[in-house]
Amino acid sequence: MRASTSLISLVPLALVSMASAHAEEVRTGANAFGTWEGDAPGVSRHIRPADLPAPTLTENDPEAPDFENAPKVVEAPQGKLPDVPPGFAVQVFATGLDKPRVIRIAPNGDIFLAESGSGRVLVFAADSAGNLPTSPGVFAEGLEKPFGIAFYPPAEPRYVYVAAANQVVRFPYKAGDRKASGPAEVIIPDIPTKRHWTRDLAASPDGQRLFVSIGSSSNVAAGMPQKSPEEIKAFEKTHGVGAAWGDEEGRAVVRVFDPEGETVRNFATGLRNCSGMAIQPGTNTLWCTGNERDHLGPNLVPDFLTSVQEHGFYGWPWYYTGGHEDPAHAGGRPDLKDKVIVPDVLIQAHSSTLQLVFYDKDAFPAEYRGDAFATLHGSWNREERTGYKVIRARLKDGKPTGVYEDFMTGFVLDKERVWGRPAGIAVTHHGALLVSDDVNGTIFRVSRHER
Question: Which of 121, 125, 82, 84 lies closest to 101 in space, CA to CA?
């Protein structure tokens, strides 16, 4: 659905019928795996590394074509809205958008949206009463698949940074701007665009550093040329432990750079596709979502949410979920096995994690404060679908428990048809949750329902 260059249609408030609560124990072991048919608000899972099945070698052939089971996308059935927990309500915030993905909230409350399909960044004006928005302004256009958005400096920004598929640029900005007051300034040029193109951005709270995520150009880097141990050691001195090379050089990483883009280096390695990043409030801790590799079976490899350590190595392409060796690289890097960081929250394989945000407002019940929400875009290469929902990752005293629960579900109608794929997510100044659906061009708002 392509957005109009004039007005974007808005749909009046519509309350969902609240889904029944699922007061049950956390699903663990084999019970933690399943399909869309077992999803519902409140269903909780905890996947541990010890729960993972063995890989299937025949499915791990790196040259084999991907098994495809792409969904048939249909319009939402009349009156249909996503399911959310009791006590919450969903309304359609905006429609008619062209592949809306990342949503970021400016310090003044304005809502910035990366409309990846049209190459634009849009701005919805903040509303003091939290009402539905007026038509958005076009802050910037002519970008190649814009995705990540960051405000710099974070508290009182003078620039808006935007990560397109091929480069990171910035625009001059002052609070309340609905249109960039100057042209794009290229900060990081010539980012390769093969395969994974989603480049997210985050800024450290002190304003000293920015981060950009750059996914891999392949499934498991099967075509990397050979290097001697001495060559690998020299390469890793400048690129980081476990960094891939050849066509994968500078890929499957989070990079850190100064605001002018004068110094750019790898911050963390072995992250196949960190599609979403966020700074945990009250800390300097960077988090990212992880889209893992294919061809190892329907329950491998788990996607994830994780804090990101500087100089940390997360396994790709040689290992996954700690010291599990990928059969495509059997015996290739035994020196790395004990250096792989296990992600904090393991999510069912092929869920396609995209974005995450931490809830730091008071509008939701107190137990939600400090937890993380993440969008699962949904599987496309699995016989039984997974994902197509928003999850809540449970934290305790700021630390992940490994447990995640379904928060927004109901987008899958049957084995073939879906009417939405969650992509972007953000928390407004009023404490509502915004979720973008990039296949039907919609943004939903989830709020506490006062009876």
Answer: 121
